[in-house]
Design a protein that fits this description.
The protein is of the alpha/beta class. Residues 331-585 form the EAL domain. One of its GO terms (molecular function) is cyclic-guanylate-specific phosphodiesterase activity.
Length: 585
């Protein structure tokens, strides 16, 4: 039995697939193409003389059945009678080659030079006097061919820039869309299908952490793996920072070839990519759409495949469903509305108290953003925060949260809550911003706050995927005095060794474990393990989502330091918190 291979086997080939593999990083004009000389000489003597002179160095081509050669040429040499005969054809050939230079040289007697030169400038680029001086002819010919060679090289470079991705040398979005359009036109005539596979690799954090050079390195490594895994009969392209495309062109059903292709492409996750010394394991989301089932044109089919990729689970392809298009439209509408919310001040800061379980004192709160529409309706956070994060708008929202949080906690401390600590959710992208630390410290100084008044919360998954640079920035913030908390602890995949390296002060036990205590063996075990782990590392614990007295008593007895949840208090507008705090006391 043959061994299983990760790469695709050969099969029906799509149109122009040769253009789909990585293009050479530096091209040069084909010497054969750059040296084809077309002889259009009515005078037999000059024609034979030139053929003998040029054939040793160049490829000499002739007219075919009353037409210019189909293979093309790089320079034409004509005498007066031939030029009259071929004038229109040469003009059309030169026009078709624009903006690339296609030179025409005219051989004529010296007596005709002055009278004819001015009238022929629109077609003729160089005049050679007969009888021909061989050395002069070769010198002028070389000059014209050199100019054409440079024009061809510039055109090829322009084509690479316009149609190929710089980092991976794969076809880019422009060429991919054109190839899919071409494939669909061919499929319409034959009654066949075109299957488009969209692959999403979340590289945004790679860019934020390692910069453009790190992103380019990761993309090039992924492209090399994708090409190996896909096989020679699949067209691959890089469509954007973290978007890739593949196309299959045949009359087979998607299950016959598309599913095996998706399985192969998903294997890119098997081995990490090293970026700046850090192992990055690429995750892929794969979506599939087909012509004619999911769209009648290239734009629609490619869009459908990308929509399907956003709905896919890791390692399992998703086939497009029309209902998903409406979900994408909702996403776009929410994103547009978020812009308005930022400009019109529709966001509010709400606080959920944190109780010190040993003595029932309020030690602080978690800052939560809420979005109130002009109608007064509140938009659920789960509906707009993912949109803000995926669109990048969170980078504009976070500064507002930090400024409002600092102003709020300053007011609470001034009213008597002297040791009050306010926790703010941030992302690695926030922390890695060059001005984040300076801006946060400036806000504290503006409100006369010590850094200890602000705690920064990042989820466990985010921290585990964060690069060394961002960890270093967190460490520097912690050394200044800001608290660092791991949110949703227990849901990610941090190891004990990695946890020891992280600059953190607090572990927040995720609500899914609190829901099962007391009484559920698994939740009890995990919760007590986290509490024990925190003690070993001298970290504070916070239990999230406390909803009844039994949970509160259990967690207090287990040694959890702080608790928050609906049983203690629901989130409330910051303006109402001071009154609630006074009543609690």
């Amino acid at each position: 039995m043959a061994a299983e291979s990760d790469s695709g086997s050969s099969g029906p080939r799509g149109p122009a697939l040769a253009a789909w593999r990585p293009v050479a990083s530096a091209g040069s004009a084909d010497t054969d193409q750059a040296g084809r000389i077309l002889l259009l000489m009515e005078g037999r003597g000059n024609r034979q003389q030139l053929a003998n002179l040029l054939s040793a160095r160049y490829r000499v081509v002739q007219v075919e059945d009353g037409h210019l050669p189909a293979e093309g040429f790089d320079l034409a040499i004509a005498d007066g009678p031939a030029l009259l005969r071929w004038q229109d054809a040469l003009y059309e050939a030169k026009h078709a080659q624009q903006p690339v230079f296609l030179p025409v040289m005219l051989v004529l007697p010296r007596a005709d030079l002055r009278s004819r030169a001015g009238r022929l400038r629109s077609i003729v680029d160089e005049f050679v006097v007969s009888p021909i001086d061989r050395a002069e002819l070769l010198e002028r010919l070389e000059m014209l061919l050199r100019a054409r060679h440079q024009a061809l090289a510039q055109r090829d470079q322009f084509v690479r820039i316009v149609n190929y991705d710089r980092a991976t040398r794969l076809p880019n979005r422009n060429l991919f869309h054109e190839q899919v359009r071409t494939a669909i036109e061919a499929a319409k005539a034959k009654g066949e299908s075109v299957h488009v596979v969209a692959v999403h690799t979340p590289f945004t954090r790679v860019l934020e952490t390692f910069g453009q050079r790190g992103l380019d390195h990761a993309a090039a490594a992924c492209a090399e793996r994708f090409c190996h895994l896909a096989g020679d009969d699949v067209g691959l392209a890089r469509l954007g920072t973290e978007h890739w495309g593949a196309m299959l062109f045949d009359d087979a059903s998607p299950m016959d070839r598309v599913l095996p292709l998706c399985t192969r492409l998903s294997k890119v996750e098997r081995h990490p990519i090293e970026v700046a010394g850090e192992p990055i394991r690429p995750q892929v989301r794969i979506g599939v759409a087909s012509y004619p089932d999911d769209g009648s044109d290239a734009e629609t089919v490619i869009s459908a495949a990308n929509i399907a990729a956003t709905q896919a689970n890791e390692g399992e392809p998703a086939f497009f469903s029309p209902s998903w298009r409406e979900a994408v439209l909702d996403h776009l509408r929410t994103e547009a509305a978020l812009h308005d919310a930022l400009e019109q001040g529709q966001f509010e800061l709400w606080l959920q108290p944190k109780l010190r379980l040993a003595d029932n004192r309020v030690a602080g709160a978690e800052a939560l953003i809420r979005w109130r529409l002009p109608s007064g309706e509140l938009v659920p956070p789960g509906q707009f925060i993912p949109v803000a994060e995926s669109s990048g708008l969170i980078r504009r929202i976070t500064p507002w949260i930090l400024a409002t949080a600092c102003r709020t906690v300053a007011g609470l401390r001034a009213d008597g809550a002297r040791d009050f600590v306010l926790a703010v959710n941030v992302t690695p992208a926030d922390v890695s911003a060059s001005d984040f630390a300076a801006r946060l410290q400036a806000l504290c100084a503006e409100h006369d706050l010590p850094p200890q008044a602000i705690e920064l919360e990042l989820t466990e998954t985010m921290l585990c995927e964060t690069g060394a640079d961002t960890i270093g920035r967190l460490r520097a913030l912690r050394e200044v005095g800001f608290g660092i908390a791991i949110d949703d602890f227990g849901t990610g995949y941090s190891s004990l060794g990695y946890l020891h390296q992280l600059p953190v002060d607090t572990l927040k036990i995720d609500k899914q474990f609190i829901d099962g205590v007391p009484g559920e063996a698994g939740s009890d075990t995990v919760t007590r393990a986290i509490i024990h782990l925190a003690r070993e590392f001298a970290l504070e614990t916070v239990a999230e989502g406390i909803e009844n007295e039994d949970q509160l008593a259990y967690l207090r007895a287990a040694g959890v330091v702080l608790g928050q949840g609906y049983y203690i208090a629901r989130p409330m507008p910051a303006n109402d918190f001071a009154q609630w705090l006074a009543e609690w006391k």
